[in-house]
Design brief:
Belongs to the cytidylate kinase family. Type 1 subfamily. By secondary structure, the chain is of the alpha/beta class. Helices cover 54% and strands 11% of the residues. A 5-stranded parallel sheet has the order 2-3-1-4-5, with helices on both faces. The two termini are 17 Å apart.
Amino acid sequence: MTRSLVIAVDGPAASGKGTIASRLAAHYGLPFLDTGLLYRAVGLGVISGGGDLGDAAAAEAAARALAPDRLSDADALTSGDAGEAASRVAGYPGVRAALLDLQQAFARQPAGAVLDGRDIGTVIAPDAVAKLFVTATPEVRARRRWRQLNERGDLIAYEAMLADILRRDERDAGRGAAPMVQAPDAVLLDTTEMDIEAAFDAARRIVEAARAKYGLSA
């Protein structure tokens, strides 16, 4: 059976996985889905509707009502509040079930696709040709996100950002529904000491090795 080139990129917040995944998609000419935006949109949907992020039923309802145009507000979806909201609603089994078909359908495109998130290689696309688990130390990830938010005017103390990163890591890894774990066959890519060019080159070489393994090399 001929496989399509599906690339699963998982990892914690601010590890560089989103940038790496989007660069891989552009490099291989594949559609790209940042699945974290789905959960961020759900979280913001709960908040904008006056709901409580602690209400699993409200979060599931927001997930089932999610419209594609909710993913177009980049500033809102990449805010610190959206990230915290996403981490909270992503733990609800009903939310994950509501978004599962959408993500899996995206991964089934004939030419392949690139998806990044927390459970792509374990749940969404377990048969992906290439699987990467991108990470970095919490301190480096916190500094990256702190710089990103402060550069656009969302002022936050570094110490608060680090605490937020650690809290989200614990929540994402400890949730009962599709916890963030490295798939057994995923290649670990630690970007702590890498700039984006080095990280992308390392990721591309991982994908090329996977393509060769499955006979998909150009």
